[in-house]
Amino acid sequence: MHERVDLLKQRGEAVIDFSIAISHFPAPAPVRAAVRAALDEPLLPYTAVGGLPALRDGLARKLRAENGIDAQAQHVIVTNGAKQALYQTLYVMTDPGDAVIVMRPHWPAYVATAQLLGLRVELVDQPDVIDAAFLDGLPRAKVLVVNNPHNPTGRVYTPAELDAIRAWLRARGTACIVDESYEKLVFDGAHHSLAACPDWQALGIATIFSASQSYAMMGWRAGFACAPAAWIRAMEALQGPITAAVPALTQAAAAAAFAIGAVPDLLADYRARRDLVVDLFAPVPWIAVASPASGPYLWGDISALTLDTTAFAERLIEEYRVAIMPGEALGCPGFIRLGYIADDEATLRRGVAAIIALGDRMAAAGAAGREADPCRA
């Protein structure tokens, strides 16, 4: 969908893109300053495949101070964004044919990456509360994938839920990949890391981080993973022939970004936008949009209108030039995902108005069809 937006824009058409989250914020000033300083250096050499030693040390300090994860540099690898970290982590944790549990709705990359590696994906519906009863009912699998904070619902797991997952991992012997890319985009509550426990390495917990959304650095491709040292060595061996080290400029940007901590201005802006869009949808009878506790997305339930959200998304981009992500891509027909952080407020309002206009037309057509149906009871 995002590629279609780019093609339309190349043709000179105006398109509002809610299909992914593209921040209207610039990258933080310390990040841009760090890159300018790096460009003044006479050389930008290859670095160690896993990242500059100083950067890995700094990321390990961040993990200890902010996430409560007892990590050292040997537990960290710097990657080209979260997707590369996910691929390499899943690669070294599994063999083809192994089962991986993914809770839906899900970031599409979890399923696509598992399929690419020849893994068997076990899709389960994410419950309102993750507890022992839910976990005990899960199928046997090599790896459980957890997304906290969650894309697309914005859910933030509670300490009790994380405790339940740890207990289940100990009992089952299942490993876990935790995607914490949105850790700095929490509006309500607080973020806690699953690996913040003394036995995280024995449990086999790998944690993925990204600067893309938390620091408005989508195109910088700056991410990293924290995992047991043996897995990190294997990930380095894999990364070497794939891409070698992350570009030196990206590493300079990552060092500056992850040293910042939170970005209050960005978070306040996103919170205001979240509240605006939720309020705009509130009086619309055919859509339910909960106010998310975190993240750059809104998750809308339009099952009262249609379960074919792929068709809804197609009509929206063809007739109104507004792009959204249909729920089918995230495992849940009847839902739509909106990235609400791009462009200005006026554009945001126009995009929401277009979604409401299409839905109202479909609702009216459906009601007229029911009235005209001679077989209607």
TrEMBL record:
Residues 26-355 form the Aminotransferase class I/classII large domain. One of its GO terms (molecular function) is transaminase activity. InterPro entries: Aminotransferase_I/II_large, AspAT/PAT-like, PyrdxlP-dep_Trfase, PyrdxlP-dep_Trfase_major. Transmembrane segments: none annotated. Keywords: Aminotransferase, Pyridoxal phosphate, Transferase. Gene3D superfamilies: Type I PLP-dependent aspartate aminotransferase-like (Major domain) (3.40.640.10). Pfam families: Aminotran_1_2. Its cofactor is pyridoxal 5'-phosphate. Belongs to the class-I pyridoxal-phosphate-dependent aminotransferase family. This is Aminotransferase class I/II-fold pyridoxal phosphate-dependent enzyme.
